[in-house]
Design goal:
- The protein is an all-alpha fold.
- The chain is built from eight helices and no strands.
- Helix 4 packs antiparallel against helix 5.
- It is flat.
- It starts with a helix and ends in a 29-residue tail after the last helix.
């Protein structure tokens, strides 16, 4: 896109700070489907130009602006960054936040990442807390799925009556009989 080309121009011939502002504007200027990828690009450029510690603000803005799935993915990536910076407690909090959006049965990646994290950096209590949260999220997802099924079963089935009764149709198309009650 134009934003990336302009940002690269600023990186080469201008200031890094201006290039980052261009990439920030790009996160708002791209289609919603491309936003997550643009945030990832912006985060990578921020880390490259001004350092990993400065990516925190970009991650936080991205998490707040993206939908649930995007926020989940960006939070999990942010947790990895915090772990690289030695911030174990922040990484744990980010994984707990990301896990809210992931049903353990349908999207086990975040849960596996959190489990591996707790085995490596946590205690028995933190692992038990992770498993408790996992059961809670799984129960909430089951309840939501059940409620959706109940709502679908309550909706009346529309009858599929023909608009025009072909059994009484005449040979002349100008004389088609339409029942006014069906309209």
């Amino acid at each position: 896109p134009v934003f990336v080309a302009y940002g690269q121009l600023e990186e080469t011939y201008g200031l890094a700070r201006r290039a980052l502002r261009v990439y920030e504007r790009a996160t708002r200027g791209v289609a919603n489907a491309d936003r997550l990828e643009m945030y990832r690009f912006y985060i990578a450029k921020t880390a490259e130009l001004v350092g990993v510690a400065h990516t925190r603000a970009v991650y936080e803005r991205g998490i707040s602006e993206l939908g649930d799935m995007g926020a989940m993915q960006l939070s999990a990536e942010y947790a990895q960054t915090e772990l690289q910076l030695g911030e174990v407690d922040r990484a744990r909090a980010l994984l707990a936040y990301a896990a809210q959006f992931a049903d353990p049965r349908t999207d086990p990646r975040v849960w596996q990442q959190w489990h591996d994290f707790e085995v490596q950096h946590g205690s028995e209590d933190s692992l038990k807390e992770m498993l408790r949260v996992k059961r809670s999220v799984q129960a909430r997802a089951t309840d939501a799925r059940h409620l959706a099924e109940v709502e679908l079963s309550k909706q009346p089935v529309k009858s599929k009556k023909p608009v025009v009764d072909l059994s009484t149709a005449t040979a002349n198309p100008d004389e088609v009989a339409i029942d006014d009650d069906d309209l």
